[in-house]
From TrEMBL:
This is FAD-binding FR-type domain-containing protein. It comes from Penicillium diatomitis. FAD binds at residues 137, 139, 172-173. Residues 80-197 form the FAD-binding FR-type domain. Residues 30-43 have a biased composition (Low complexity). The lineage of its organism: Eukaryota, Fungi, Dikarya, Ascomycota, Pezizomycotina. Belongs to the flavoprotein pyridine nucleotide cytochrome reductase family. One of its GO terms (cellular component) is mitochondrion. Coiled coil: none annotated. Residues 20-43 are annotated as: Disordered. The keyword Flavoprotein applies. Its cofactor is FAD.
Amino acid sequence: MKSSIPASFRCSCSRSTLQSVGGRSRRHASTSSSASSTANAPTPSRKARWLAIAFVSVAAASGGAYVRAQSPKSSELNPETFTKYCLVSREPVSPSSSLFTLRPKYPSDSNYDIYEEAWRAGVWSVMFKQPQLQIGREYTPLPTTAATGLSVDEENEGYLRFFIRKDPFGEVSRYLHTLNTGADIELRGPKIECAIPEETRKILFIAGGTGIAPALQAGYSLLNRTTSTNRPQIHIVWASRLRADCLGGVSDTLNATTQVSASGSWFSGWFGSSSNAVHDGVDTRVSSPQEPSLIVRELEALKSQYPGQVTVDYYLDEENRFIGKQDLAQFIKPVGGGEDQDIHNLILVSGPEGFISYMAGPKVWAQGTELQGPLRGIIKELNPKGWAVWKL
Ligand SMILES: Cc1cc2nc3c(=O)[nH]c(=O)nc-3n(C[C@H](O)[C@H](O)[C@H](O)COP(=O)(O)OP(=O)(O)OC[C@H]3O[C@@H](n4cnc5c(N)ncnc54)[C@H](O)[C@@H]3O)c2cc1C
């Protein structure tokens, strides 16, 4: 497979001037069988499901935020005005990416609740301001895990962490990588990118590059709903350009999925496998005697916290391992059991523009709003009946 990951994130959604991003854009969920969000008018029942997902998004995105927006205090994160944060640390993860830790410049008791509301909803982002150019870009807070997260005090103080790739030609990511500890950074948000419906039981998350940050969020939000009767599951497929980003990552299912195609069992291939990391004779470990990368540690922490509910497969451009149609075919099997299934089973795709296009077709702009656009790409070719597909 040709590498579909371009040299940089170039999401048009992220190319925002501060003047032009006043309101929240409403995102549409593409269900698997709707070939085009514009060409195919939904049937009443399909429309109802579509509306259910859209409603959850809109309600989660706007409900609490609206109340807060009535009187945002300058010290509290809100979607209308920028709030000052301080850069606590910037640690390199790989030659092209870093972990940014920020804390609110002025203490506010309400930040914790504001974040919590967003975590419960699903995948969310905040906008960072580049003050010289007056432009903003969205970045995805990393969840806190027991193994690698923040201390309780730091959490209570409203610290946030971000995994940010430096685009050598990018205005905001390059600017952020010039900042020193103690620098001010202004943030606006939260913005709910995808509210995960309460009914969701399985997520297949296809991530490219820093698209892994929303995957961690989705995992955190979904698995937090675990009870004795509800054990949701997430499988993350992550393509990285550099070994350093996913150092120490061991794929869970690559070998098992090749076996499972013979047995035809989608489910056992996904969650019934061990950490055997040999795929068609190729060692799929991103092996190194060094410490696993930050993101791999985060993923491992999620796995330990929710045993049997999380699996991850790693693909690495540097080693010519790319996510192909066959790899996804193991997981995207048509789901039976009625029309409502596509709220239970979610495919999320996140990453650079070209990555999303290759996987699920491009997002589109209409009348100043970013829409999901028709489902295309290799996911469409796999006919994911019974799955909702959402491009982040
Ligand atoms: C919801 C969301 C969450 C995100 N979360 C993260 C995250 O957690 N971590 C992360 O690293 N990124 C994330 N991103 C991406 C991020 O918002 C930025 O898009 C990214 O950092 C690049 O921004 P930039 O300003 O540095 O680059 P830009 O200045 O936007 O440039 C990006 C690239 O486009 C090229 N370019 C610019 N203008 C043109 C043009 N006119 N024609 C052709 N090419 C052009 C540039 O050369 C560069 O290579 C997220 C994006 C979204 C939408």
